[in-house]
Recover the amino acids of this structure.
């Protein structure tokens, strides 16, 4: 069973940066699409960004465009989410997830229901 572990979250001031990591155990991530999702207090989980097995990136949330960058390093079996210019509204629990099937449409790429394997989440708090 594919297991994912997020790390890199924490408390940061507005305008600061964090880099989240998603590492896999037992299996390689090379053949999976990996997505980052977040859930703010009182809100539904939303897709943030996703990267295909071949490295193609898709932004899922307009509010993070230009500030967040998803990448993967297959040699390290890790996917990253670089978050810059953080805002208080970025606060939430961030999850990485893996989709074993090929996804073509943005609607599905950014849909949590298409991802079968999930990490435990890492808390990101942006506050002064």
């Amino acid at each position: 069973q594919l297991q994912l572990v997020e790390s890199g979250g924490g408390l940061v001031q507005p305008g600061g940066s964090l880099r989240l990591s998603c590492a896999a155990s037992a299996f390689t991530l090379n053949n999976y699409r990996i997505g980052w999702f977040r859930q703010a207090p009182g809100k539904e989980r939303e897709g943030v960004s996703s990267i295909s097995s071949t490295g193609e990136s898709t932004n899922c949330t307009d509010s993070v465009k230009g500030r967040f960058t998803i990448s993967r390093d297959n040699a390290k079996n890790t996917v990253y989410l670089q978050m810059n210019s953080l805002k208080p509204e970025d606060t939430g629990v961030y999850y990485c997830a893996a989709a074993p099937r090929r996804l073509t449409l943005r609607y599905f790429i950014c849909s949590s229901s298409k991802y079968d394997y999930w990490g435990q989440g890492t808390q990101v708090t942006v506050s002064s």
Remarks:
- Residues 97 and 118 are 4 Å apart (CA to CA).
- The first helix runs from residue 106 to 109.
